[in-house]
Amino acid sequence: MTDFLMKFNPFDPGGFWMFLIALTSVFTVFVAAERIYVLWFKYKVDSRQVMSRILSFVDSNNYSRAIEVCNAQSNNPMMVVLKAGLLKANRSDVEIRRALEQTTMKVGPQISKRIPYLATLANVATLLGLLGTIFGLILAFESVGAASAAKKQEVLAQGIAIAMETTAGGLLVAIPTTIAHAILMAKQGSMLDAIEDSALTLFSHISAKNRMGSMQR
After folding, report:
1. Pseudo-torsion of CA 82, 83, 88, 92, nearest 10°?
2. DSSP per residue over 149-170, as a string?
3. Using an 8 Å Cβ cutoff, are 19 and 6 in contact?
4. 62-70 long-range CB contacts below 8 Å, 24 or more apart?
5. What is the spatial distance between Cα 52 and Cα 59, in angstroms, rounded to a whole number?
6. Helix, strand, coil % (nearest 5) of the chain?
7. What is the mean pLDDT of residues 102-118?
8. Does the pLDDT value for residue 202 go beyond 90?
């Protein structure tokens, strides 16, 4: 157990690199867990049900109730975008479209926040592992040159062990981090697509209704 903990000891020549890799993994877990909670739970919404309710209120000219539906989940990016369109429902098509597009651009960063960090953390873990490998090999060859003939094999083995451990440690962090980044990027893309589709549906519905109202006048 002591030998295992020494691999993460920042004051040990080999453990210093393992400690940095472990520290990278902590940041990775924090970022991934926070984004998973936000995208899968905090921003969860049944877009079909919501759109069905909003459009039914729009059809009955009850825009205040439609806005109340959005206010019920005021922190959800989709609801923020739809509300912006509803607030401009009595304006021209250009103003409605502009409100929807501008609000979509504003909520986009809320969805993608911190996700790019994961790609950086995966690269950092890999590079730390590589740097630890190089350090271990340098340490091994320097120690071999200074060691007696009887201890050369032992010293060389210790240096190579440090090199291999840091390589493995870096990859063990980088691979899951890369996978988490890919999954979160896919979720981010699907959420943005859903927001854009809902905004377009709302715009088309309001625009058609406004044109019909103008013809009846």
Report:
1. 0
2. TTTHHHHHHHHHHHHHHHHHHH
3. no
4. 63/89
5. 11
6. 85, 0, 15
7. 95
8. yes
